[in-house]
Amino acid sequence: YKRQELRGGGAAKGTRLVQGALELDAERLEARYQGTPVRVTVTEFRLLEALARRPGILFSREKLLQLTRDDDSIVVDRIIDTYVRRLRRKLEAVDAAFDSIETVVGAGYRWKDG
Questions:
Q1: Which residue of 3, 45, 49, 84 has the lowest C-beta tally within 10 Å?
Q2: In CATH terms, is domain 2-111 a member of 1.10.10.10?
Q3: 12-51 pLDDT, tens per residue?
Q4: Beta-carbon contacts of residue 11 (< 8 Å; ≥ 6 apart)
């Protein structure tokens, strides 16, 4: 993956993650796929970022919950399935052939490497 400092004013500098056709701007909480803006929630953004930052690495639902939620609320780990389904729908709206989020049955999810 490629990580770049954003250019521009201000003391706080965010990072941009580029993974294939996916671009994430953490400072602005913006996602683009094939150059097209994709509207995502904060949780969806964090999930996408966690997966895309480490392609090929398998994340359990529990681990993805830890990475995406910053509160101690009790949440069923299957909510991750819902977030993944929503993300897939949003990315498929840009590219019908989108298949970069891979389901590993009984284990979790990963961003397809390459």
A1: 3
A2: yes
A3: 345 899 999 999 999 999 999 999 999 999 999 999 999 9
A4: none
